[in-house]
Amino acid sequence: MDPLYLNYFSCHASVPPAGGEDISVGVPALVFLDELALLVVLAISGATIDAPLVTRLALAVAPVAVASLVWGRWLAPRAPHPIAHPQSLGAKLVVFAVGAIAFSATGDIVGAIVFFVVSTALVVASEWERHRLAS
Q: Which residues touch 59 (CB under 8 Å, ≥6 apart)?
């Protein structure tokens, strides 16, 4: 298994609190899948634009690369230069909003809304869990 994949989940791995109940790593796993869905949404949105092939390829690759770099550098749990809590939550929501806007450009408005609502719920739940465990 890829060590980067394991590092993502190891930062979310939780130690049972004093009461003994086990805290699930399910939310971070769902957030990770949502991040992958974001990249897919960005790629499909760019590839389905009515434009010449070269433009569609650029619009399928460039947003994915930018989102990956931004997330990996500043927003990932083990980012080398992480943004502080309130700002990181806002930045993550902005990234998912951009993904939802790109999704809506494909003509699937309901899908875009569902994507953004689910992404927002997962990101907020993940941030809440991370800061609850840290305190």
A: 45, 46, 47, 49, 51
Q: Examine the pLDDT at 13 and tell me if it is beyond 80.
A: no
Asked if residues 2 and 27 have their Cβ atoms less than 8 Å apart, the reply is: no
Are 90 and 124 a contacting pair, CB within 8 Å? no
The DSSP secondary-structure symbol of 124 reads H
Asked whether the predicted pLDDT for residue 66 surpasses 90, the reply is yes
Task: Enter the tokens of residue 20.
Answer: 């003994």
Amino acid at 35: E
Region 31-50 average pLDDT: 96
Predicted model pTM: 0.79
Say whether 68 sits in a helix, a strand or coil.
helix
Instruction: Give yes or no for a contact between 99 and 41, defined as CB atoms under 8 angstroms apart.
Output: yes
Cα separation values, 29 from 49, 53, 94, 109, Å: 31, 35, 20, 26
**Looking at residue 74, what DSSP letter applies?**
I
> Residues 61-67: what's their mean pLDDT?
97
